[in-house]
Design a protein that fits this description.
The protein is mainly α. It folds into two domains: 100 residues; 271 residues, MetI-like fold. Helix content is 70%, strand content 2%. A two-stranded antiparallel sheet has the order 1-2. A two-stranded antiparallel ribbon has the order 3-4. Strand 1 and strand 2 form a beta hairpin. Helix 4 packs across helix 6 and helix 7 runs antiparallel to helix 8.
């Protein structure tokens, strides 16, 4: 079986077009930038949203050329993916990978179609699709979310087992065929093999599952802690604010990487500190949900009891199962529905502990500003309880900055997870997470680029997508 080229038979048609468009697009963009510095806009028209656009002159021509060439370049790139998804390995490595991602493409298309169709009914999320930057960022993030989902639940994306080693595939280049593939085994290493003869493409795909499973959920828990403590600190002020702010500043005084390093070192893990921290930190979602429901339905006892039971009982069982792990210091609960690997739990708790103080500071500042608004005074005049005002009057009006920070913080957490994996801390050494894979590949970086480059680009793309998504949400929240 012959090795795959990058574009296969598809490249005979599209490669010349691509090589022709790329330099033209670069020249058009450079001309547009230079002309904007030296040439005034000779013809300007107003858009419906109040922005101005050049329609004539040299600058207008450069703008039209760069936009047109950029659109053509995008069409060519989409043609590589679309035709490759149909042709598969005949379209080379790109086509084979695109075919593996077919479930992701379908899920993305359905998500965009439904979101754009009903965007006026979806609040801030729907308004995201009025922002080009936000749509691009959302697409990149959801690509990895769907990849992790289909790879973890259905095992549809990866071509090989991320831990399996194939004879003769050590440090093989992308597109290399297996020497003696068994029946039902994918016959190529699409992105080559690493120094242990494992498939780089499959490890990149499986690594997304590790990141998507930890980063958003750990960030959400950190927000539960920060919101639960930041609301009363900003609303009441006084000694409570002083005490909580002092504790937050005390944690923030440590460098983040150093604090992570201390929390995940084996000596600290053996003391059981991560389990004890989980006992405390994992209580905050329960507290937040309970106070939120009680503040809303306090005057309706039957509905209050119903919602508290429906929400808190399952959350309590999950909480007890999460903190009660085998071979840990916390084993007081007989029912254990699932097990979290000790390395994952340690990293998860560390992310929550490190991010919660920053979220606390943000929430506290927002509450101190919003509590002076007229609608808060009106709620106080109506006789509403403080927690109702904090959770149902102040918090919804602080959602814009918090959602933006949530997206950015997931990106920071992704980088931290990559850093921990790169230094071999917290996660198991055979883990396919992107940081560990980059570390495995960088040892031969001067000879082979392919083991380290794909996970590095994957990490870069996810963080870039989260930043673009945050920018889009920021734009729309400011208009809201």
């Amino acid at each position: 079986m012959d090795p795959l080229t990058w574009t296969g038979s598809l490249g005979t048609v599209l490669n010349p077009v691509l090589f022709f468009l790329v330099p033209l697009f670069g020249v058009a963009v450079a001309a547009r930038i230079l002309l904007s510095l030296v040439t005034p806009e000779t013809a300007v028209q107003s858009n419906p949203d109040g922005t101005l656009v050049a329609t004539g002159g040299m600058q207008g021509g450069a703008r039209m050329a760069s936009n047109g060439l950029g659109l053509l370049l995008l069409v060519v790139l989409l043609a590589y993916l679309a035709l490759g998804a149909v042709m598969g390995p005949q379209a080379g490595i790109i086509g084979a990978m695109s075919q593996q991602f077919v479930p992701v493409w379908i899920a993305l298309a359905a998500t965009y179609a439904l979101s754009i169709r009903y965007k006026r009914r979806l609040g801030l999320y729907g308004k995201l699709f009025d922002s080009t930057i936000g749509m691009i960022g959302f697409g990149i993030v959801m690509f990895w979310v769907f990849t992790a989902f289909f790879a973890g639940v259905f095992d549809w994306i990866a071509t090989q087992d991320s831990l399996s080693q194939m004879s003769g595939m050590k440090n093989k280049l992308p597109g290399e065929p297996l020497a003696q593939p068994e029946d039902g085994t994918y016959p190529w290493y699409l992105l080559g093999g690493d120094n242990l003869a494992r498939d780089v493409f499959s490890r990149m795909v499986e690594g997304s599952l590790v990141v998507i499973a930890i980063a958003p959920l750990a960030t959400l828990f950190a927000f539960m802690v920060g919101i639960t403590l930041g609301l009363p600190a900003g609303y009441y002020g006084g000694r409570l604010d002083t005490l909580l702010s002092f504790l937050a500043n005390l944690i923030l005084a440590f460098p983040v990487i150093l604090l992570f390093y201390l929390l995940v070192t084996p000596e600290i893990v053996l003391t059981g500190l991560p389990q004890y921290m989980a006992v405390v930190l994992f209580l905050f979602p329960l507290i937040f949900a309970g106070v939120l429901i009680h503040a809303r339905y306090r005057t309706q006892p039957p509905r209050n009891a119903l919602w508290l039971s429906v929400v808190l009982v399952p959350m309590a069982v999950i909480y007890l199962s999460a903190i009660n792990e085998p071979e840990s210091k916390v084993t007081f609960w007989p029912l254990d529905l699932f097990d979290i690997p000790s390395g994952i739990l340690t990293v998860f708790v560390s992310v929550v502990f490190v991010n919660a103080p920053t979220v606390f500071r943000i929430v506290r500042g927002l509450v101190m500003d919003i509590k002076t608004r007229d609608y808060v005074a009106a709620a106080q005049t109506r006789g509403e309880r403080p927690w109702y005002i904090m959770l149902w009057e102040i918090l919804p009006n602080a959602r814009g900055p918090l959602i933006v920070d949530f997206c950015l913080r997931i990106g920071y957490t992704t980088i931290l997870l990559g850093t921990l994996g790169f230094f071999g801390l917290g996660l198991p050494p055979e883990s396919p997470d992107w940081g560990t894979t980059i570390n495995d590949g960088r040892r031969l970086l001067s000879i082979y680029l392919h083991p380290a480059l794909p996970p590095a680009l994957a990490l870069l793309s996810l963080v870039l997508g989260l930043n673009l998504l945050a920018d889009g949400l920021r734009e729309e929240s400011l208009r809201d």
